[in-house]
Amino acid sequence: MVTGGGGAICGEIARALAGEGASVAIWDLSADAGRAKLAGLPSTRPAGLALACDVLDRESVREALRETLAVFGTVDILVNGAGGSRPEATTSPQLSFFDIPAEALEGVLGLNYLSAVIPSQEVGRVFARNQAGVVLNIASVAGLRPLTRSIAYSNGKAATLSFTAWLAVHMAREYSPAIRVNAVAPGFILTEQNRFLLLDEAGSPSERGRRVLEAVPMQRLGRPEEIAGAVLYLVSEQARFVTGAVLAVDGGFTANSGV
User: Fold this and answer.
1) Could you list the residue range(s) of the whole structural domain that residue 211 is in?
2) 153 is catalytic
3) Which of 34, 170, 245, 247 would staple 28 via disulfide (CB 3.0–4.6 Å)?
């Protein structure tokens, strides 16, 4: 199951999982976006599934889980990928830190923290019954090194990383050592959504893009499929002794002190 699977990065994760023979359920706030990604997946066994789901609404999550179990019978892997930011929770020349509304902060914090917690609670019940399962949280380098203007997004992803470590210990000790919980922290990934910010019309780095590249030792932006590759490792049997870990896929961004 991949939440936020209608988006660029999580859509690529869904594609990679299907390519390895997994039956994939895409949960997304937009049913149309989920169905579009589903249509592009390699063949799955049995047929894939795309469902509208608001991961911040517990009953919506429960209904999506019921529908998923009705088709697949069980769940082995949960990828918590839903998240994002909003301008009203980000500082800018038009909005100072002092004037950011509390409700805007709460909204983005929930979008990037509770979006991992609530599905993990509901799907975690299945894992506890099965005595096995994998939770993989899609965090961000912003949770490791706060991005300058993105206060709520950075704080929400930091909370997700803390939750990853906590849940890994809790599930292993309270339910089964075969339940693993890890996270991937993507760096600056080029998608259609942010292309206009990072590249100019000629395809060269924009001013913002140049600042990003200066901070990335590998001197390029990442690609969604590179996040998917890290996810495949962490959810596979190759990582069966890995839990509570965070894998940064960032071209060296978090290793760079800047001096």
Assistant:
1) 195-220
2) yes
3) 34
